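Data availability (excerpt). The following record was deposited with the supplementary files.
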Amino acid sequence: MTKLYATLLSFVPAKRDEEKGATAVEYGLLVALIAGAIIAAVTTFGTDLAALFDTVAGELAL
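Predicted structure:
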């Protein structure tokens, strides 16, 4: 079991060095995807949500 663990550990540093730049690109793509989803949700539900808040505010004022 120790030999297997040592063999697996020998692959980890080599793999980590090869993908240093790729992780930054992946994080950038993830941030862009999340920002796009937020913009789409706000655009889609923004006016409906504003109308709902106006209705609730009107009911509370009574």
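Summary of structural features: The chain has two helices and no strands.
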